[in-house]
Amino acid sequence: MAKGKTIVVGGGIAGLTAAERLGQAGVEVVLLEKADRLGGRVANLHRYYPRLCPPRCGLEVLLNSIDNLSNVEVLLSTEIAGVQKKSPGIYTVFLRDLKREADPYEIEAGGLILATGAELYNAAKISEYGYGNLPGVITSMELESLLRPEGPTGGRLVHPVTGKPVRRVAFIQCAGSRDKNHLSYCSGYCCTVTLKQIEYLHRECKDVSTWIFYRDIRTPGSKEEYYRHVREEYSPVFVRGMPSSIDGAGEGLTVRADDTLSGKKVEGNFDLVVLATGMVPSELPDIEGLEKDGHGFFPGHIPCAPTELRRSGIWAAGCAQQPMDVEDSVRSALSAVAQCLVRLQQENTVYPEVNKKKCDHCGRCVKECPYGACVLGPDGYPEIYPGDCRGCGVCQGGCPLSCLNLPGQGMKKIEDVVDKVLSGDVPGPAVLLFLCSNDAYPAWNRLVRKDEAKEVLKGVMPISVPCIGSVNMAWINEALIGGLDGVMLAGCHPGQCHHGGGANHADTRLQNLKETLGRMMIEPERLCLTGITIDDSDRLFSEIKRFSDVLAKLGPSPFK
Amino acid sequence: MSRYIDITDLKEMFFLDTAAAKTAVSCEQCGKCGSVCIAPFKKPNPTSLIRLVQLGQVAEALQSPLLWSCIGCEQCNMACPNRLNVAHLVRSLRRLSARERDVCFPKYIFDLFVE
Fold first, then answer.
1. Answer CATH for B7-113 from 2.60.120.650, 3.40.50.10860, 1.10.10.10, 1.10.1060.10
2. Cα–Cα dist A328/A13, whole Å
3. For B72-101, what is each residue's pLDDT tens digit?
4. Which among A405, A458, A477, B90 counts the fewest CB atoms within 10 Å?
5. CA distance linking residue A243 with residue A361, whole number of Å
6. Partner-chain contact B29 A240, CB within 8 Å
7. What predicted TM-score, i.e. pTM, was given to this entire model?
8. Are A41 and A189 in contact, with CB atoms under 8 Å apart?
């Protein structure tokens, strides 16, 4: 069982969902919120799509429930100042009380859910739309506030500056999105937000007409139905073409665009222009070993394990993962909760044992562990926290003295293979083949069932490893010295490795070993690394054939 | 006159009957009706014709040779992913067009019969 509290960073819809669910499961939770109230951006929304219901409804349920949970502590006006790994399975989290301006204080955490959310892209940066200069150009978030009964106009749709009634509203989609000068990505939610706002405007305000300037309307899944519903029910005018500028010289705002569907130039005069802006991730102090994508989000290992980050015990939820709407944020928070509960209750994990007699405290295992599960303990020896270790064995592969071994892995297996070769049972070039258990091994299993492969494969001895990065070079040395003709490593393609850099580690180590072999006048061609996906059994076969041919040409191992 | 089409007020849309207007506003311009249409004079094709109406350019749409070239096969209706009645829109426009003295039964089609 993991120790320590679970800290949920961010009190928006994702953070609230995560804290409430974990609280219900009996976990000790600390919920941090930078602002002085919970709810995040959702609390400023007027309506949710697709039901046009007020966000307060769902929020109240969560807030009441958290109120009643004694194991959920809420810290408002508190931000996270840093995170450090303290000891196996425990992080030290530095917190800053924003009201007191005191030095950061620290608490211990067994797990962290980063629900830090996202900010809206600063529309003032899109200079051509004049946001900030032209009264009447607002963002979609500002339209939400304008429509709220608690908003500046009491929920009436009037011009925010002149106070005149608004009749004609234009929406500009992809404002700063899908644009290499601003945000190169699609935030994915703005199209549906605009459709929702159109529906709301038409339902609640008399005599309103709406226009949309767009590039593509992106409404995946059931949102397509919603798009169709709004189009057919409220007939907004769709113009496919991005306006180059907004002219505020005369009465109202004049927007001109080229309609790419008809090839005609169009212009319109509007009371209000709403910019549908995308999201940028909120700032968060760097956490050692936690990789962000190029935009600053934590997308996880997509597609198979979107909640998996490179540090065990830390998960991202909501818009910290990628821009998403409320529905996806809740879903993402729930998956982080599920992973957190698994970690808290997991008992039987596979992790390497450390042979302290051989270890010289070099710390390579600590440096190479993709998950930060391996730390040097107080006695200077590597210590692996079972709950953090994901059993990839990259430490086992990297250890220069091979003193880390996963259960069932290690030199013993190589010795068995060598014994078999020495006994003379293995015909042809004797090849030791390491196979990644995720991909290459299933491909191998299919290959050995094929009759036509049997002849070629009879000199091949397979060993399954959790990741090709777990193959220790000492094993390869042992195999070559023991008389094997060649060693082949079949891992994943670079970039596809579940553990991040397993294939790259294997490649680097193998290159170094090849150099050493070259100096010893042993042909480096006796070693090879190949990338095999799970459906690549044919290619695995041809690679083995090619390698056997190379070995046949080189002749038997000089150690034989 | 501005080279720009003013889309602020699309009053020409009111010339259309309700069913035709519904087709016009509901169309998302996928282009399928245009690709299945077998009319000899696809000027413009049905998709682009609908686009003209969507932008309020009904007067321009009434000049379209397509209106008189449509053979009424309704392939467009069969193809439409939104199950819109495209053929009805074309027929409505033709009816409107027939009321306009200078457009009624264009000479180029009349010539086809003479030859």
1. 1.10.1060.10
2. 10
3. 999 999 999 999 999 999 999 999 988 876
4. A458
5. 63
6. yes
7. 0.88
8. no
